[in-house]
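SAMPLE LOG
Freezer: B-3
Tube label: C17
Construct: single chain, 412 aa
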Amino acid sequence: MTLQSNAAPPSPGAAPYRQPAGVRQDAFGRQPSGPLAGIVVADFSRVLAGPYCTMLLADMGAAVIKVESPSGDETRAWKPPVYEDQSTYYLSINRNKRAIALDFANPDDVATAQEIAASADVVLENFKPGGLDRFGLDYASVAERHPAVVYASITGFGTAGGAALPGYDLLVQAMSGLMSLTGDPELPAYRSGVAVFDVITGLHAAVGVLSALHERSQSGRGQRIEVNLMSSALSGMVNQTGGYLLSGKVPTRMGNEHPSIYPYEPMPTADGDIVLAIGNDRQFRTLCGVLGSPALATDPRFATPPDRSLNRAGLRPILQDLLACKTAAEWFDVFTEARLPCAPINDVRGGIEFAQRLGLEPVVEVGSGDQSIPGIRNPITFSETPASYDLVPPGIDADRADIVQWLRSTKP
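STRUCTURE (predicted):
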């Protein structure tokens, strides 16, 4: 079998490793089509940020070994909703992986975990800082046996002053300031409807892993990658954190409004709201023309983006009166024809159905035959090496025999 992690890493300055043409097989005989075929990932993470990262890598062809405690990833028990009595939370972020359950209170299982880490291209973990040290699974210990390893650590608040803080997305939404920006200004702060910073951190981890693999292909050197939810949150709030740093003004909740652009929010129509996202003067002129009030675009109060933003209290009722003559669906057709940014407010089912109507094919079948389940497509499209969806999310310890056999095959 072909296993890139068993190949001698190139010496500094040597040509990068290239997988032989026509060979696209992972460590377990799977033949994925993705660009990471041949890469092995030891996944010591759980819940969301880490498993989301490793699922994306698995979709792209990596052989991911999910290492769990005997009780399993916590998300296995996060119900409802369920699919055939399994947690849909777990199922949504663990496809294309193989699983083994190891009890770190058992020296033999610790030794197995160490072998897995020493035989993989990538190790990813989200234990509390220092939590793996006593098991010989920290970066220094793994790298001593395997200098070419790419070792990624995900924490909540880093390894310095925040090392003792529990890393939950909700806590980071509160501490980072996101909740202070979310919701109606007259009501309590709200969290996002999805664990947005877990997802962003998982994406950042994936970017880091891929970058380090590229560097290793050039130099032969592995390295440690550290990402944390708090730093990802501050980076992910982009214009809000940047706006504070550059202006000194602390942003506050504005409901569905945008602090710098108007109209950029849901607007009422004859039967419900439609979202408008008018970001420049050309779009505003078009909007006014479509609404039958072209003179509004030259009104000095609304002529430029800063004018419209500062005078939104005056502009809002004018737009609402003009929009009241048609339904949201009718306006969507009119605005779309005029190439104006707008959107209906869908529920999740509506969002998936809308993507299907656009031909985005958002739903894929994971696995095959009677064992297949539906899943959301990997969002990255490769023209030559498409993502694969071969394996349904594994049960606890489902692949122990295959993983042990693979470990034996890696030994001289």
